Amino acid sequence: MEKDLKALAHEMRLNPTNHERFLWYKLKAKFPKYHFRRQFQIGPYIVDFINLKSKLILECDGGQHTKEKDKARDLFLQNKGYVVLHIWNKDLITNMNGILTLIYEHLKDN
Hints:
This protein is an alpha+beta fold.
């Protein structure tokens, strides 16, 4: 199963959604000194973006995501010491400055 997740993560890196591509571009442009990884496997999960130093995970969420669906996953990640920020796809377009400010607040002390 782990090989399947690694292959899936690799495929997801090769074929990001438009929203993931947009956020990746913004992360690289606005936070060049912070190293983010894309489609990174943690246990049985693949996270969209992660900064390992700050233990910050960013999830681009579309209509397929719900709080109920993500609850077990978030709990697993939080128990590993990660902070998980869910960013709705529509907010990437309508509130990018607010999102970047929120991300920076989590990064600035690392």
